[in-house]
Specification:
By secondary structure, the protein is α+β, with helices and mostly antiparallel strands. Helices cover 25% and strands 26% of the residues. The chain has eight helices and 20 strands. The strands form six sheets. Strands 6-7-12-10-11 form a five-stranded antiparallel beta sheet. A four-stranded mixed beta sheet has the order 1-2-5-3. A four-stranded antiparallel beta sheet has the order 13-19-18-17, with helices on one face. A hairpin with a 6-residue loop joins β18 and β19. Cell wall formation. It comes from Aquirufa esocilacus. It is found in: Cytoplasm.
């Protein structure tokens, strides 16, 4: 058996039947063709930043460590930058920022890898993967052929994509390409970014200044997984109908809310509900809710995946009972 504690940011102790690490898609194809692990299901791990391990994994765990950052193409206005699936996401973002290419700066310091990013259309501070996504390459696990997906084929939604729905378990993403702007077209409409820039007297921020502001915000609010086990936001921000939104706004004046593009639906911050229900800073054993960000569940040391999961279910029930709002888990439960 192989310990997975070092391969998930929650720091949960769980074991796998078998474990391999790959640095190319050809390695995995060869492994599959050898038939050596044909008797086991295959579980793919990137940075382990969006999973909660609740039991031993009777599987071959495949750690995706495909490297490489490549400039594929450029014209007068844009560059097409490709990242291997195993590249640390923030290293990819900071590389683009340092080159002066705009589009990913608001996604600074999000944990995980490049390959995992499009699976759930990661987003933060007014930006999402789909905004700059060009294409990705993924291995069809049935045919062992590499296929190319454009944005339409990925069918991006709020923290989801084709790969979390119809294509779940059918593909292994090997690389992702982004179309980034050579012109500084920064997004600073998110309130916290404006506040940080204002305190520094910055009125016309550069790409680097926006990235640094985002990094400062995240570090002030979110725990470092190296210090306290966590997987970032545990729940999705709930989206409700216009009539349901009107009920919430009437019942709770001042509740933060945001329009959903192309829809009459309204999005509310899950952290607001969790904090108002009294869960912020809650701790039971080594499982808890972070004291600075109610959206983040944490492992203070020796919590089991089952204990974290049980806490999340208690919170869901509490929010439903108190506000009539259903929370969805963003983290993948394994």
């Amino acid at each position: 058996m192989y310990s997975l504690r070092a391969y998930n940011t929650f720091g949960i102790e769980a074991e796998a039947s078998q474990f391999v690490e790959i640095s190319s898609i050809d390695q995995y194809i060869s492994l599959r063709k050898s038939g050596e692990y044909a008797h086991l299901p295959h579980l793919f791990l990137g940075g382990g930043s969006n999973v909660l391990l609740t039991k031993a994994q009777e599987a071959l765990v495949v750690k995706i460590s495909i490297p490489g950052i490549t400039l594929l193409n450029e014209d007068a206005d844009f560059v097409w930058l490709k990242g291997g699936a195993g590249v640390v996401w923030d290293e990819f973002v900071q590389y683009s920022v340092n080159q002066g290419w705009s589009g990913l700066e608001n996604l600074s310091l999000i944990p995980g890898t490049v390959g995992a990013a499009p699976m759930q259309n990661i987003g933060a501070y007014g930006a999402e993967i789909k905004d700059t996504f060009a294409s990705l390459e993924a291995l069809n696990l049935e045919t062992l052929e590499v296929e190319v997906f454009d944005a339409k084929a990925c069918d991006f939604g709020y923290r989801e994509s084709f790969f979390k729905r119809a294509g779940k378990g059918q593909y292994l993403i090997s690389s992702v390409t982004f179309k980034l702007s050579k012109q500084a077209s920064v997004k600073t409409s998110y309130g916290a970014i404006q506040e940080v820039l204002a305190t520094k007297g910055i009125t016309q921020p550069s790409i680097r200044e926006v990235a640094d502001a985002v990094i400062e915000i995240r570090r002030s609010k979110l725990p470092d997984p190296k210090e306290i086990g966590n997987s970032g936001s545990f729940f999705k921000n709930p989206t409700v109908s216009a009539s349901e939104a009107a009920r919430l706004i009437s019942a709770y004046p001042g509740i933060p809310n945001y329009p959903v593009d192309g829809s009459t639906d309204v999005k509310f911050p899950a952290g607001w509900f969790i904090e108002k229900a009294g869960w912020k800073g809650y701790r039971k054993g080594d499982a808890g809710v972070h004291a600075k960000q109610a959206l983040v569940l944490v492992n203070y040391g020796e919590a089991t995946g089952g204990e974290i999961l049980a806490l999340s279910e208690e919170i869901k029930k509490s929010i439903k009972d108190t506000f009539g709002v259903s929370l969805e888990t963003e983290v993948n439960i394994l």
